[in-house]
Description:
Chain A has helices at residues 33-52, 72-83, 109-128, 134-145, 160-171, 177-180, 185-194, 198-213, 218-225, 231-238, 242-255, and strands at 5-8, 65-69, 92-95, 100-104, 147-149, 154-156. By secondary structure, chain A is an alpha+beta fold. The longest helix of chain B is centred in the first third of the chain and has 17 residues, at 8-24.
Amino acid sequence: MKRLLLVTLLFCLNCLFVWGQYNIKYEDEVLSSKERANLEKVIDFQLKFYNNARLDSLIKASDVKLYIYTDYSAFLLHQKEQMKTTLHRSMGFYSSKNKEAVVCKDKNETRFMKTCYHELSHFFTNTYFSKIPIWLNEGLSEYFSEMKVTAKEVKHIKKDRNIARVKTMIKNRDIDLKNFINWDRQRFYKMSFAHDGYGYALGYSIVLFLMEQHKDMVPDYMGKMASEKDSAITFDQLYGGGFGQFEKDFLSYISKQ
Amino acid sequence: MQYFKQNILTCIFAVIFSMQFCFSQGGKSPAITISSDRDRDGNITFVSNNDDYCDYYVILDFPELRGYTARGAYPCKKNVRTGRENLLTLKKISDTSSPGYRWSYTFYRGSINAKPNLDYIYAMPVKSGDSTRVNFGRSGEFKLYFNYRHAGDTVYACRAGKVCNNDLRDGSSKTYTSREKIVIYHKDKTFSEYDRYTTPLVHAGDNVKVGQPIAIVQPDENGKKFVSFAVYYLDKDKMLADGRKHTSLIPIFHTVNNGDCKLDEKITYVAELTGELVTQDMNKKEKEKYEKKLLKQNK
Ligand SMILES: [Zn+2]
C-alpha cells in the first residue's frame, strides 16, 4: 500500500506579515508549487474566517490537519477504516475519529483544489463548531470550495449552478425554508442525493446571501447556531425582523441573481 | 448534433457518421428527422418530422450560408408536434455565383413552453384501497420507488396522457430511453416515467386514463417488487447550460390516510382513486362525458 502523505501546516506566528510561513511536509511532490501556494492562501483565508466566529481560544495554523492521498484505493481503504463505509463518487471526507480532512489527489487540478477547500472547511466546522446545523456546515463548504486565488487576494466566485438550482426550486414551489434549516444530516443527504443536490444548493445560497448581505453578522450566526438546535430561533433573535424577514430577503436576493 | 452539407462527398461522410451514431445508440432512430424541399425558384423549405407522440424542441442552425437569406430567424428554435411541421425557408438570392449552405440540428424531448401544473394531484400507482411505501432514488433526478409488497402486481397510471415511443432517441447522446420504461406525456407538457421490472400493458400512442392498468411488476432476484415513478419537464432555463435539460418535480399524491401530500419514506400510504383525481386534466366536454358515463354505470 502506498503510504499516505501527511501535510502538516505549521504557522509561524511571529511572521504574520508574510505568506508562505507554513511548513508543508510531504514525501512525494504531490502538490505543484502553485497548488501549494493556493492551498496555503485558502487555508489562511478560512482560518481567519473561522477564528472570527470563535469566542474562546483561537485555532492555530498548526492545528490544521489535511491528509492527501495519491492512491485512490488506499484512500478508499482509509475511508472505510475511518467511517465504516465508502462514499460514492467522493474524493474527500472528514474523519471525526482523527479530526482531520482527507482528500485524494485528482488528475483534474481544479476539481482537486475545490475538494481540498471544501474538506478544509469541514475540518474547521466539524472540529470546532461540531453542533452547527448541516445546511450551514455544507453551505460553508460549498462557499469556500469556490475560491479564486490571485497574487493580491482570495475571493469567492459565485457558484451559478447552485443559484440556478435554487431559482428552479422557488419556481417549482419546492422550498420550505423553516423546515429545511432544521433538517438533520440524514434528511439533508437523502434529499440532496435524491433531488439534484437540493441541500447543497440551498445551503450554499443561504450562506452566499449572508456573506454578501450581512457579512459582519456571520460570526454571530455561527456562534449562536453552534449551540441553538433550531436555526429559525437564531434568525428570530439575530436577524432584524426575525425569520420571516430573513426568508423574504433571501428569496428576493436570489431572484435578483 | 449532426451536420449536413450540399456536397456529395460530405453527404457520404454524413451518412457513415449517422450510421455509426445509430449503431452506438442501439440502432434506435431519431425521433425527429429533417427533410428539405426545393421549389421551382430554388427556395428551400426545411421540414421536421416528429415520429414520437409528444412535443420536441428543435434547434436548426446554419453554420454556413452563402447566397441565401433565411425567412425567419436562425438558428430556428421551435417546439414541434407529432407529424410534419415547417421550420424555415431559405430564399435564394438571384445574383449569387456559388450558393451553398451547411446545416445542423439538435432536438430534445418535450416543449420549451412547459408550464407544470404544480397543483396537480397524482393518484398512486397501486390499486385503490391497497397500501404502499416509497423509497427515494439516489440518481439526482427525483424518483420514488413504490413498493408493491402489499399491492399486487399491477401498475396503475398516476395521471392521464399519451404514451410516448421509447424506441426512438432524442438528439443528445446523453439521454437514453430504455425499452422497459413507460413515458407518458401530459396536458401541461410534463412527462411521467414508470420504470423497473415492468411488463407494459400499453403501447406507444395510447391515450391512458388515471387509474388505468399500464404495466405488470415482476419481482427482482430478491422477490421484491418495486416500480419507480418520476415527473419531469424540458426546462428552458437549462438550455444554455451543460448536462441534463430536464428538471424533475416532487409530485403531490392523493392518499387516504395523509390527505394530499408529498410522499416520504417509512410511512405507509393507502391509495384511493376519486372522481376528482380522474377529472383534473379534463376539459368541460370531457368532464360532462365522464359524468354521463358514471351515471349510466350507476343505474
Ligand atoms: Zn461536504
